[in-house]
Amino acid sequence: MKKLILGIAVLSTSLAFAQTTQTTSSSASPVKFGIKAGMNVSSLSNDETLEDQGSKIGFNAGVFANIPVAESFSIQPEVLYSQYGDKYDYVVAGNRYSYANHLDYITVPVMFQYNFIPNLYVEAGPEFGFMVSAKNKAKNETNNDVLAESGNYKDNFNTFNVGIGLGAGYYFTDNIGLTARYVAGVTDIAKNRQGNSDAIRNNVFQVGLAFKF
């Protein structure tokens, strides 16, 4: 399944570049490269319910290529470093404590974009993620003391992750734009799930800035 999904991603990108070569010769818009960065609000959910999720703030940053394939359509593959996971806060004896899971990925979104007007677009597409780090941390937020922190235990997880992204963006100038995207996880992050327990999936809302060269 991993090989099939990766094959589809590579094929989609290859077709996009092939189409770009063809359309560029017909005076179509050129490929534009850029960088982007922003904030992640991530959580973990199971099959049964989306309630009681603990959200964690993180960041994403990376590069992209915007590839026109028609007058109002383009494909945008990206490579990002993206922080996922969740965080829970609770109070004991007047002290506020937190427990956070820090799941860091190299993600490869492949977004299919449609421009309503030249500066405003909507997008949808798959995101492929490769886990690089998994840690957790318990902290006394009242005293700002770290109570416990694990080492990297990513081998306990499925290191390959798939999500579906939906988003939009607006460019204030030809180069600078505001972006927003929600990515819902499709694959289970647990490596060896026992019994009939529910699958756990990554979810993240991202907002940030993009700069095209």
Q: What this model shows, in words?
A:
With 213 residues, this protein is mainly beta. The protein has 1 helix and 9 strands. It has an 8-stranded antiparallel beta barrel with strand order 1-2-3-4-5-7-8-9. A hairpin with a 4-residue loop joins strand 7 and strand 8. The two termini are 36 Å apart.
Task: Write out the strand line-up for the largest beta sheet, numbering strands in chain order.
Answer: 1-2-3-4-5-7-8-9
Estimate the mean pLDDT confidence: 86
Strand fraction equals: over 45%
Sheet having the most strands? 8 strands, antiparallel, barrel
Instruction: Describe the global form.
Output: elongated
Could you give the count of β-strands? Answer: 9
Helix/strand structural class:
mainly beta
